Amino acid sequence: MEAATARQPPGFFSFLGHGASLPARNRGLFLPLLAVTAALAAALLLGNALAVQPLAAAVLADADAISRADPASAAYRELARSLRADVRRFLLAAGSCLLAAVLAGSAIKIATVFAAVAAFSGGAERRATVAEALGAARGNVWGPVLTVAFGYVLELACAGGIVAMALLAVVLLEYSLLLLFLDALLVLLASLFLVYLTVVCAVAVVVSAAEPGRRGAAAVSRAWRLMRGKNAQAALYVVATCALAAAVSPVYTLALSWWPRSAASGVAAGAAYVLLLGAVEVFSVAAVTAYYFECRECKEEEEEIMAGHRYTKLPNGDEASI
Question: pLDDT tens digit string along 2-23?
């Protein structure tokens, strides 16, 4: 009887289906988030095209000119001053775009996570409302914020280690091919670990939104434990999101190619590109939220089974540990 009433385990690809069906079923909740995500992508693309790229071209032009100038001439000193000014402006523009991408992107991601948690918790029978998502966020907003910040620290530390090992390979070229091979292998393994850590941190943000009180290191630890035995689905999530992002990128190339011939066509292709980017981001958050709930459900079932094996009923009604 228990076997008949047991919950059916979710399919291997089911969380990806939820990533598409959850926003479609709760359009009123996710469409504004998609629009804001697309607007941020458009602003960053415009900032890159209008500020960062021209300054980068100016820096390269200054460097080329200074390489051909006479160091003793007055023109060389003028070029050096121009190069320093252009480098300063370039770093300021690039840093501003990066800071805006991190801060605004993290805020939108946290809002999307709260929306996805509210939608998934409501089940398939009812649609989540904006008021429900705002209510959950109002009492627990610092949990995901601290978790996102902690995740960035972990990812930067891991990336820094990879860069250090890659630079070590330059030194090892003069000593031993065996050590060079081992170092390259470590770089490869660390890069794969960084990809996995990125998924863990994404799940940790959902943990901090769905389980108030877990934040930062506690949320990452909880996500790490929940994902045990579900690593293949984590790899599938990475492949699916990367494949979608790669499928969207030709639209940007199309927009750039159409712009000189027809401004209207270029704008339309650019708008389609940023909207597709927003859709991919919403899908990514919804899919990782569904993945978290599936992992949590499997973990709870395992704990129930372990608790059931720990005690057994004796004929007189007493409980005995086995």
Answer: 443 445 667 778 888 888 888 8
For 6, the token pair is: 């047991």
- Joined together, the tokens standing for residue 170 give 């330059």
CA atoms 196, 279, 11, 208: torsion sign: positive
Predicted TM-score (pTM) of the model is 0.84
Q: For residue 274, give both structure tokens.
A: 């940023």
The rounded distance, in Å, linking the Cα atoms of 146 and 207 is 12
Helix axes 177-210, 217-226, angle to 10 degrees: 100
In the structure encoding, which two tokens stand for residue 289, read together? 């939220």
- How many other CB atoms sit within 10 Å of the CB of residue 313? 9
What backbone phi and psi angles, to 5 degrees, belong to 321? -80, 140
| Dist. CA 237–CA 241, nearest whole Å | 6
Specify the higher pLDDT residue, 190 or 261. 190
Phi and psi torsions of 320, nearest 5°:
-130, 145
Tell me what percent of the residues of the chain surpass a pLDDT of 70: 86
Q: What is the mean pLDDT of the chain?
A: 84
Angle among Cα 51, 54, 57 to the nearest 5 degrees reads 145
What type of residue sits at position 156?
A: L
Q: What does the alpha-carbon distance between residue 7 and residue 229 come to, in Å, rounded to a whole number?
A: 18
Picking from 300, 253, 244, 285, the residue whose alpha carbon sits closest to that of residue 119 is: 285
- The string of DSSP codes covering 152-200 is HHHHHHHHHHHHHHHHHHHHHTTT-HHHHHHHHHHHHHHHHHHHHHHHH
**d(C-alpha 20, C-alpha 80), whole Å:** 54
Dihedral over alpha carbons 215, 217, 222, 223 (to 10 degrees) = 90
Q: What is the structure's pLDDT at 300?
A: 79
Residues near 153 by Cβ (< 8 Å), separated by ≥ 6? Answer: none
Per the listing, tokens 């390979």 go with 169
